[in-house]
Design goal:
The protein is built from nine helices and seven strands. The protein is α/β, with parallel strands linked by helices and 206 residues long.
Length: 206
C-alpha cells in the first residue's frame, strides 16, 4: 500500500501548530506515514512546540531553512528541503492552517489513488474531501500557478486558502515533486493571470 510524506512549511506559526498539527499526526493509516515540518527560522515559540510534539509523535520530523532571505523564493526552497528529507513514494503538500477534519483523511486520499494517478488536488467541500486527478504536471500547472500567486500576502496562512480557492492539499508522486515545485512563487502579469482564470473556468475543476 502507498506510504505518504506530508510536508508543510511554517514561520511564526506556534499557535497554529499547537492547535492543528495533532490532526495530521493522529491519522488512522495502517501502512504508516511521516509528517515533515520545515521551519523557516521562526522567531516565536515554534521550535519549542515542535520539540514537545516530537516527543509524543515519533513520525513527526522537523528541519529548517536557515537565515531566510525575503528576496529569495523562500517557500519553494523550504519545500524542496522537505522533499529531500522525505522517505516515501507519495508527497502531500499542505499548510498548517488547513488541516484534516477527521482521522480517515489519509485513508481517503489513498483510496483515490490508482494506477494512472500522477498528481491530485484535494479540498474540503461541505465537510467532504473532494479530489481531482491529473495525468501529469503540465495538466495541473495552471491551477498551481494561480493558487500560489501573491504568496507574500498568504505566507503565514491568513489569506492562503482564499488565494488558492480550489484546493487545500497537493498530492504528487515523490519522483515528480521537484518538477511540481518549479510552479511555485512565479511572478506573473495581469494578462497571464486572466488567461489562467479563463482556462480554469472552462475546464470546470470541481
Amino acid at each position: 500500500m502507498n506510504r505518504f510524506s506530508v510536508i508543510m512549511t511554517v514561520y511564526d506559526n506556534g499557535k497554529d501548530l499547537e492547535e492543528n498539527l495533532p490532526a495530521y499526526l493522529s491519522q488512522q493509516y495502517e501502512p504508516g506515514y511521516e509528517v515533515i515540518v520545515v521551519d523557516e527560522s521562526s522567531t516565536d515559540n515554534t521550535d519549542d512546540i515542535l520539540k514537545l510534539l516530537k516527543q509524543q509523535y515519533p513520525h513527526l520530523y522537523t528541519t529548517f531553512l536557515p537565515k531566510p532571505d525575503i528576496h529569495r523564493i523562500r517557500k519553494r526552497l523550504a519545500l524542496t528541503i522537505g522533499v529531500k528529507a522525505s522517505k516515501n513514494e507519495w508527497i502531500i503538500f499542505s499548510d498548517i492552517n488547513v488541516f484534516p477534519q477527521d482521522e480517515t483523511w489519509l485513508q481517503t486520499i489513498a483510496d483515490n489513488i490508482n494506477g494512472t494517478s500522477g498528481i491530485m488536488l484535494a479540498r474540503y467541500k461541505k465537510g467532504d474531501l473532494v479530489m481531482r486527478t491529473f495525468e501529469d504536471i503540465e495538466a495541473v500547472s495552471n491551477y498551481i500557478i494561480k493558487g500560489e500567486r501573491l504568496q507574500a500576502d498568504g505566507h503565514k496562512g491568513t489569506r492562503l486558502r482564499k488565494l488558492r480557492g480550489k484546493y487545500d492539499f497537493i498530492v504528487v508522486r515523490a519522483d515528480e515533486a521537484h518538477e511540481l515545485l518549479k510552479l511555485f512563487e512565479q511572478h506573473i502579469g495581469f494578462s497571464r493571470l486572466l488567461g489562467l482564470r479563463l482556462s480554469i473556468l472552462f475546464r470546470n475543476l470541481f
